[in-house]
Amino acid sequence: MQLPPKVTPRAYARLAEIGAGEQGQALRVAVEGGGCSGFQYDIRLDAPSEDDLILEGEGQKVVVDSVSLPFLAGATIDFTEELIGARFTIDNPNASSSCGCGTSFSI
C-alpha cells in the first residue's frame, strides 16, 4: 500500500491567501516526462476531476491524478518563501536525484 502525498498547513494557507477554493480551483500536482533529470513536476491551479485523489485542508484542495500518484507516494507538498521567490515545493522520497532548480527529478 502506497502512502498518499501529504500537504503542509503552510501550503493550504497559501492556497487560501490566493483564493483558490473560492474560485472552485485546487492545486494540481502532476508528474510528466521531461526536464533535465527525466521527470518534471507540473504545479498549477485547476478544477478537480473524477479520477483525482483529493487532499483537503483548511477549506482548500490539492489534487493528484491517478497516473502521477505512484510517483508522488509519500511526498510532502509545501510552500516556501525565500529571497529568490516564493513557490510550492515537493519533497519526494521516490526521487533518486534532482536538478538544481528542484522541478526535475529521476527515479
TrEMBL record:
From which residue to which does any coiled coil extend? none
Q: What is any Pfam family matched here?
A: Fe-S_biosyn
InterPro entries from the UniProt entry: ATAP, ATAP_core_dom, FeS_cluster_insertion_CS, HesB-like_dom_sf
Q: Which PROSITE patterns match?
A: HESB
The domain of life is Bacteria
- Every copy of the Core domain together lies at 6-102
| Record SUPFAM superfamilies | HesB-like domain
PANTHER family hit by this protein:
IRON-SULFUR CLUSTER ASSEMBLY 2 HOMOLOG, MITOCHONDRIAL (PTHR43011)
- Protein name stated in the entry: HesB/IscA family protein
